[in-house]
Amino acid sequence: MKIGLYFGTYNPIHVGHLIIANHMAEFADLDQIWMVVTPHNPLKKKATLLDDHHRLQMVFLATEDFPKIKPSDIEFKLPQPNYTVHTLIHLHEKYPQHEFSLIMGEDNLKTLHKWKNFEVILDNHDIYVYPRISTEAENLELKSHPKVHIIDAPIVEISSTFIRNNIKKGKNIQPLLPSKVWEYIDHNNFYKK
Predict the structure, then answer these.
(1) Per residue in 9-25, pLDDT tens?
(2) Residue 77 belongs to a domain with what CATH number?
(3) pTM of the shown model
């Protein structure tokens, strides 16, 4: 089975994440999408994250009606901070029957050369890239790499930061979240302080 790994802190997961994941599941040559909840991105402050189990629960609630999209807590069991290359090695050992690919936005492709062991990732895994609006000059040397597949997915500019900030301000951001995720956030009073 060909699995697309879509990593994120999902703090919280929103409709933009689901639009991208579903597009990859339906229009790329991937059998399933695993939404890998990242416990701690080395580039983000841990204090801004909800507990891992809450973010995983929101991904579960958001994806339960999408049979090709699965939540994954695979990184919860790995030493932190973790790097994508370590997760890929772990997944290959645990699920040798599957072929794993990465899903990322164009913004991440631009910085892939800064990732730990990025050459190993590129040598062994396909990368499916969805478009992002960018004001920077296009500097995508890797765009023509044989393992990189640019997917004509919808451009979605919704951010979890925007959602958190506006919940705190008391704004109605319900349309940006799957209804079960909104109910979970509201019930637990998340992001209000």
Answers:
(1) 999 999 999 999 999 99
(2) 3.40.50.620
(3) 0.92
